[in-house]
Amino acid sequence: MPTVAEALQIALELYRAGRLDDVRTLTTRILEADPRTAAALHLLGLADRRQGRLQEAAERFRAALAIAPEMADVRCNLGGVLATLGQVDAAAASQRRALALDPALEAAHHGLASLLCSRGGPRDWMAAAASFRRILRLQPDRADIFHDLGIALRQYGAVELAVASQRNALAHAPGFAAALGNLGNGLVELGRLDEALVCFRRSLAVEPERAATLYNQANAQYAAGQSETAAESYARAARNGLPQALTRLADVLTILGREADAEAVLRLALTTAGSDIPGAIDMLSALLVRQGRHEESRRFFADYRYPHVADPNTFRLECMTAVAESWLAAGEVDHAVEVLAGVHGHGSRFFTVKSIAGLQQVLAKQGRRLVRPVNPDPSQPRVCSSTLATHGRFAHNVLEYVLLRLYAEKFSYRLETPDWVGGHYFELDDPKPSGGLKPLSFGRRILNDLVTGRRDDPRPDVDILSPLFLFEHREEWRERVQSWLRPRPEWLPYVDPVMQALKRRGNTVVALHIRRGDFVWFRYTITETSWYVDWLKALWPTLDRPVLYIATDDPATIADFAEFAPTSLADLAKDGAAEPWTGLEFLQDFHVLMNADVLGVSAQSGYSQLAALLNRDARLFVEPDAAAQRIRPYSPWTVSSDTP
């Protein structure tokens, strides 16, 4: 009879040979003889994982660690299983404990880095890059790690470094198709389209039907004005298993004037598993509205059901948004408001349609309406952003607008914009889109470099696509930006009373923004209320009759500030001091943040950071320092060393 050690060696060889049922039989016998054999539990867990029994695998690994907690490879494998189960934080913690036990364990470095890169949020991408770099210090010839490092760097926005990392991958493996494709993506973002197209062609020469590469090649072709070939590439990507390409194909067909073909593709997308259903709903809704087919649109989206999920209401939010959009386009504002009154969501298009409907309803009750101007001479240099109202919500859209307008004004281009919430709320008079512009994808770096003078090859007559944002907010732009973004006088009776009520309660309005909600889902940095409480304890005695206002999407956090008698919009409404602007309360909160005497923002929140940028009166701005777990002063506008 073999010893336990000999039996474990046989079980390991069976595992390597893929004979998993035999592994299970042998390790079970070992554990019957000695239930505390950690290595047998580990092997049994590996067999469970290979056979798709992930919960059982996690239990085996935990049982092994209860016996032998120093086994770094078991902690690493536990982290891998937890990652597959979607338990991101627990998986990362397991990989970190594995590395504490064995700092040279390459699998744990790779597991942690891949996890942070693919499933983490913005705060995790540089940590992922650091882990990939540690692997490269141990194994400097790993082309796959250079490739993964490049992906992490590009996610973080370090595009030049990402391009260099992909080139390093190709130096070690010249035919590495994925690295060629991702190098192409980086070059597109840098505006080097000809080089990018060469990379995509080389990648497809290695793997001719790789759907992701076909899709990315189509993006580059589209950006280069090669719409016909882009349509072919998107269609090939969809045929090769990437149904998300269908909506992009429909977009190109629309640009080409082939709206009937675009409609057919969108209807196909709405019945295809794995396609971009929200995008297809938005695009088909816009197409039907553009053609004046309002009644047909309402019937279709009221009845639409996605056939590939059990819950028939999975896309109800998007469908109701489409129904409301058709009412809005038909001039039936009350119907649009009614459709969305009881609907709650975070989608960009939902936010835009619901907010614009609410604002237009206010004007309609006053016997007024907002009339958008038309570009008097579309033959003159112009730029547009047709996606301005489709990515992100209020602050994201406004911050995109700031970059777009800085760019347009610097090069004397006319800026055209679609209907968007900021265009209704602020005193803006940009003309509606005139159409006929080729797209500029991944334009944020190019526009930032053009606005700041780091490059001088401006691009007129382009449709600049989201996402966009300024990399730095220079003091030299402050007066100009603040002059653009003033609320229209029509809205002041709805937002000013909140600020006036606070001023009646004290002489110094301290406003804090505490963001939760989707920050938890997307793994953005969470601002802990305790940091602000500690800061307020020191600040409060120095202020003249302070009053604390909390703007938050999580009312439960307000109680954390009890010692400062905090108030919120809901509290003011309860006391009869101010009336909530139903459906548009975010504008009332924003107005307070924009006019407070002391303003504290939420980490990584464009909403409160935009309010700080537009606040002309605050004598103190503060922000969370997540690394130090405290609150620190900051300046929303910065003086750049590049400033003349």
UniProtKB/TrEMBL annotation:
Key words of the record: TPR repeat
Name all Tetratrico peptide repeat group domain ranges: 214-297
Highest taxon, organism lineage: Bacteria
Question: What PROSITE patterns does the annotation carry?
Answer: TPR
Q: Where would I find the TPR repeats?
A: 38-71, 72-105, 177-210
User: Entry's InterPro entries?
Assistant: OGT (IPR037919), TPR-like_helical_dom_sf (IPR011990), TPR_5 (IPR041656), TPR_rpt (IPR019734)
Which Pfam family, any one, appears in the UniProt record?
TPR_5
Instruction: List, alphabetically, the PANTHER family matched.
Output: UDP-N-ACETYLGLUCOSAMINE--PEPTIDE N-ACETYLGLUCOSAMINYLTRANSFERASE 110 KDA SUBUNIT (PTHR44366:SF1)
Q: What is this protein called?
A: Tetratricopeptide repeat protein
Q: From which source organism is this entry?
A: Azospirillum endophyticum
Provide the taxonomic classification: Bacteria, Pseudomonadati, Pseudomonadota, Alphaproteobacteria, Rhodospirillales
